[in-house]
Design goal:
The protein starts with 8 loop residues before the first helix and ends in a 9-residue tail after the last strand. The chain folds into two domains: 201 residues, no CATH class; 73 residues, Alpha-Beta Plaits. The protein has twelve helices and four strands; from the N terminus they run ααααααααααβαββαβ. Strand 2 and strand 3 form a beta hairpin. Helices cover 63% and strands 10% of the residues. By secondary structure, it is of the alpha+beta class. The longest helix is centred in the first third of the chain and has 23 residues.
Length: 295
């Protein structure tokens, strides 16, 4: 069955979205709850503004006194309507649940500091630990295939109509919010917010991708047989050979690819250098390996 035929592509996407839906939805709900805890325990007491609608709510709260959860809810509703108009039904449907669930959890946990006595007077510690917990929750949401809405919608709009990348769109939207925090709360607060934003990004990536236990080598060498024998016979790992073409000289040469545990990274790296000092190789993290062995 060809799942990618034009008549079945919609069914295929529905199949992906339905797969492990109970597990993914549970993970998503827990992730939203963790984000709300980090937000109310560490972010709000110190007026940290790690981008997104939650950070914008803190700024608006400072200026006008409205509750953070109400501001987030209103902004998310407005953004959902905008998303429906500019991005369409399919894109909007994917953000509805998170846009409504997160402000609900934030409202329910607004008084968590009354029950959970944590000293958050040290802003640096709050930025670090708040970023870790917030990032862990965000990573769970992303790993489950969901989103919390907010500036994610703005980023998609900028990306679509501004003809720019998602990364630049995120930099523009979250960057402006963090910059505004410096005007409202001062430069020191803005620096703590930037630190927290970086930690959130770092931790969420680790949750989504996992910790890399393997390294992948891509090797171009004039001593192909010797390096292949070294990898297979000495280190005991499989290898795949690709046929490649140089972009400058346009000459054809083979590319050797292998994946091995990080503990053997040094041995292979030094082995390549000892066999062929002029070898060209790229080393990257390999987060997951599935399927059969290389031949």
């Amino acid at each position: 069955m060809n799942l990618f035929s034009k008549t079945k592509d919609i069914r295929f996407m529905e199949y992906i979205n339905r797969k492990s839906i109970v597990k993914r939805t549970t993970e998503f709900i827990i992730g939203c709850f963790i984000i709300s805890l980090a937000y109310n325990i560490f972010v709000v007491p110190n007026n940290l503004v790690p981008g997104n609608v939650g950070g914008l709510a803190i700024i608006i709260n400072r200026l006008f006194g409205f509750s953070n959860s109400m501001i987030i809810f209103i902004l998310n509703i407005f953004l959902l309507i905008t998303s429906y108009i500019l991005l369409g039904k399919e894109k909007t449907r994917a953000t509805i649940l998170g846009s409504l669930l997160l402000p609900t959890f934030i409202s329910l946990t607004e008084n968590i500091n009354i029950w959970l006595q944590i000293d958050t007077s040290q802003v640096l510690l709050s930025a670090i630990f708040g970023g870790i917990i917030y990032g862990f929750g965000a990573g769970m949401v992303f790993r489950a295939g969901f989103t919390t809405g907010g500036t994610d919608i703005i980023n998609q709009i900028i990306c679509k109509y501004g003809k720019t990348s998602m990364g630049k769109s995120m930099l523009m939207s979250d960057g402006l919010i963090v910059l505004a925090s410096g005007i409202i709360f001062g430069i020191n607060n803005m620096m703590y917010s930037i630190l927290m934003l970086y930690i959130i990004s770092l931790i969420s990536d680790r949750v989504v991708l996992g910790v890399s236990d393997n390294k992948m080598f891509m090797i171009v060498t004039n001593k192909e047989d010797e390096i292949r024998d070294f990898i297979i016979k000495k280190l005991g790992y499989g290898i795949t050979v690709f046929s490649g073409k140089g972009g400058y000289k346009k000459n054809y040469e083979n590319v050797l690819m292998t994946v091995l545990p990080t503990k053997d990274y040094y041995q292979l790296k030094e082995g390549i250098k000892a066999i062929d000092e002029e070898a060209f190789y790229i080393i990257t993290d390999s987060y997951e390996v599935f399927g059969g062995s290389s031949q």
